[in-house]
Design a protein that fits this description.
Largest sheet: 5 strands, antiparallel
Strand content: 35-45%
Strand order of the largest sheet: 1-2-3-7-5
Number of helices: 2
Helix content: 10-25%
Structural class: mainly beta
Length: 107
């Protein structure tokens, strides 16, 4: 658990972390968002932190619509996720926020 917390801190600060390789995202796919409320949400993977057993990803979320988009952690959490941090719970039109997700790496 201390590794997950340390990785989350490094990701929020956009810093390197021992035991993890920080790189640009190769795969920007993002599965969990299924709600029609989120159809105007643009999601871009900013960077990835790869470790032996876990990985972290930083995403930017941009509201391209004309109404605010409320977000809950349940909207963006996947089954393999160990931790996530959403910097804003509501994204107003044309506003951007950051999402940080730490997950188990596929074996």
């Amino acid at each position: 658990k201390s590794t997950v917390l340390s990785l989350m801190k490094a990701m929020v600060r956009n810093e390197e972390m021992d035991g993890f390789t920080k790189a640009a995202c190769e795969d920007s796919s993002f599965v969990p968002l299924e709600s029609e409320t989120l159809e105007n949400l643009e999601i871009n993977c900013l960077s990835t932190y790869l470790g032996e057993q876990i990985e972290g990803k930083r995403y930017s979320l941009v509201n391209r619509g004309t109404t605010p988009i409320p977000l809950k952690e349940e909207d963006v959490a996947g089954p393999e996720d160990l931790a996530l941090t959403l910097m804003k719970s509501t994204i107003h039109p044309q506003e951007t926020t950051t999402l940080y997700i730490i997950s188990r790496r596929p074996q």
